[in-house]
Amino acid sequence: MRTPKHLQRLFDGWPDLVCFDLDGTLVDSVPDIANAVDKALLSQGAEPAGEVNVRGWIGHGSTTLIRRAMIWADVPEEHYEDVYSGFLKAYFEHLADESTLYSNVESVLKAFKHQNVPIALITNKPSVFVKPLLDHFGISSYFSWMLGGDSLDEKKPSPVPLLHCAEDVDAEPARCLMIGDSLADHNAARAAGFKSALVTYGYNHGLDLTTLEADVLIDDLVEMLT
Ligand SMILES: O=C(O)COP(=O)(O)O
Ligand SMILES: [Mg+2]
Fold first, then answer.
1. What end-to-end distance do the CA atoms of the chain give, in Å?
2. Where is Mg(2+) bound in this sequence (predicted)?
3. Whose CA is nearest to atom 4 of ligand 1?
4. Is 21 a catalytic residue?
5. CA distances to 38, 105, 108, 164 from 221, in Å
6. Is the same domain home to 87 and 195?
7. CATH number of the domain encompassing residue 81
8. From the CA of 65, which ligand is nearest?
């Protein structure tokens, strides 16, 4: 396979490491996350928030998600532990009832693997959900790392999880690529010295992604391979 044009331009070949974000990049997980948030809110007698609201609260980890939902629903802060544990339980029980893989995820993972590029999964989702979700879609075996928001001391937009993987394989940050959908992914990439690719279909909260000047902006993951 000839080197895809974006990779040729950025790395003069294939990168030494590629890191993927999860929610909004590989998996459209909003339906199940929203159902779990709504269950937790309903248990407090609050209104359900629904998918459109929840979509705007994803990307900074589950604690931020629940805090935003509680503010929106006017649930008193002292109920945080109850709402958070209700969310965790409900989501774990229905992790992938309605969630779907975005198009071309598996073929893109396969192409990087075929070139022996180490692949990392770096999400701000709590780590307890990560492997079960990837297992559900049959893609866990592609990843040499599966890091959740609580796996290390810091999460995205900190560069710590990205640099952790780069150091493991002795890769120069400038030869590493982060592919994500949000400002947290882009800022983590920049702080780590990685190249940043953003997908336009994810949960970018109405942000005009062109203003971020990512190295690559794509409407479908397969564009990484063209
Ligand atoms: O749980 C979240 O906030 C979503 O995380 P991700 O977009 O980093 O996968
Ligand atoms: Mg994301």
1. 10
2. 21, 23, 181
3. 59
4. yes
5. 30, 7, 7, 24
6. no
7. 1.10.150.240
8. 1
Report which ligand 1 atom has the smallest distance to the Cα of 22: 9
The pLDDT of residue 206 is 80
215 and 138 both lie in a single domain: yes
Task: Ligand 1 pocket test: pick from 21, 58, 181 the residue with the most ligand atoms within 8 Å of its Cβ.
Answer: 58
Cis amide leading into 31 (omega within 30)? no
Q: Residue 198: which CATH number?
A: 3.40.50.1000
Pairwise CA distance, residues 171 & 108, whole Å: 21
- Taking all residues of the chain, what is their mean pLDDT, rounded to a whole number? 96
Same domain, 55 and 84: yes
Question: pLDDT tens digit string along 16-56?
Answer: 999 999 999 999 999 999 999 999 999 999 999 999 999 99
pTM: 0.96
**What does the pLDDT read at residue 68?**
96
Which residue among 93, 121, 141 closes a domain? 93
Rounded Cα–Cα distance for residues 27 and 161 (Å): 20
- Domain hosting residue 219, numbered range: 5-28+100-225
pLDDT band at 126 (very low <50, low <70, confident <90, very high): very high
- Using CB distances shorter than 6 Å, the residues near ligand 1 are 21-24, 58-62, 65, 123-125, 182
The C-alpha R_g of the chain, in whole angstroms, comes to 17
Average pLDDT over residues 59-76: 95
